[in-house]
């Protein structure tokens, strides 16, 4: 059973870069069929897909965030990471890492979520 | 971009009721639609994928239907554990979520 765990700073200053890591356990991040994704949820609001890195290493980002987002993978650590630059208060959200081994962009494995607050 | 619109935004119902939530896509997404349940402070849980396929372990009172641009999630007989927020998600192109439907106790 794959398990995901987010880690990273809970507080980021405006204009700086938000960096989060998702550690994958119970399976290999290089296994076929996975789209390793980040999903965020603004406080009291709905879900927003941020982007993914696939098992082939290809990336795809939400167009509304594309200019500021990078998702990368470290296969040696079985981790993937999110970097979001030039953050503002509007980026304050719970960030989830999520995936499913189905060659489709849907999610049955989720991390517990981590709240990132953008504030000076 | 594909937009997903759920209705209603809030639904009040009682234990034992049959409820239906609708999700409409701005473009044809075939059957590439999933439904999730989310409880406060928890990660979402996948209920339905490919519009009508029940995820393993999900009670059979949950069902999904539809194709193209209009989809429904039906709970045949509400249980106390079902009061939560429900989201649809299209995965035909990227992964857009609906805005959510909060299912409340009447």
Describe what this molecule looks like in 3D:
The complex is a heterodimer of chains A (120) and B (106). With 120 residues, chain A is mostly beta strands. In chain A, strands 2, 4, 5, 6, 9, 10 and 11 form a seven-stranded mixed β-sheet that branches. Chain A is built from no helices and eleven strands. By secondary structure, chain B is mostly beta strands. Chain B is 0% helix and 48% strand. Chain B is built from no helices and ten strands. The mean pLDDT of chain B is 97. The A-B interface holds A 37, 39, 46-49, 52, 60, 62-63, 96, 98, 100, 102, 104-108, 110-113 and B 1, 32, 34, 36, 38, 43-44, 46, 49, 55, 87, 89, 91, 94-100.
**Cα Rg of chain B:** 13 Å
**H-E order of chain B:** EEEEEEEEEE
Helix residue percentage of chain A = under 10%
Task: Note the main sheet of chain A.
Answer: 7 strands, mixed
Shape descriptor of chain B reads globular
Report the span from N to C terminus of chain A.
39 Å
Envelope shape of chain A: globular
Concise description?
The complex is a heterodimer of chains A (about 120) and B (about 110). Chain A is an all-beta fold. Helices cover about 0% and strands about 50% of the residues of chain A.
Structure keywords:
A: mainly beta; 4-stranded antiparallel β-sheet; B: mainly beta
Question: SSE layout and pairings?
Answer:
The complex is a heterodimer of chains A (120) and B (106).
Chain A: E1 3-7, E2 11-12, E3 18-25, E4 35-41, E5 47-54, E6 59-61, E7 69-74, E8 79-84, E9 93-99, E10 109-110, E11 114-118
Parallel strand pairs in A: 2-11
Antiparallel strand pairs in A: 1-3, 3-8, 4-5, 4-9, 5-6, 7-8, 9-10, 9-11
Chain B: E1 4-7, E2 10-13, E3 19-25, E4 33-38, E5 45-49, E6 53-54, E7 62-67, E8 70-75, E9 85-90, E10 101-105
Parallel strand pairs in B: 2-10
Antiparallel strand pairs in B: 1-3, 3-8, 4-5, 4-9, 5-6, 7-8, 9-10
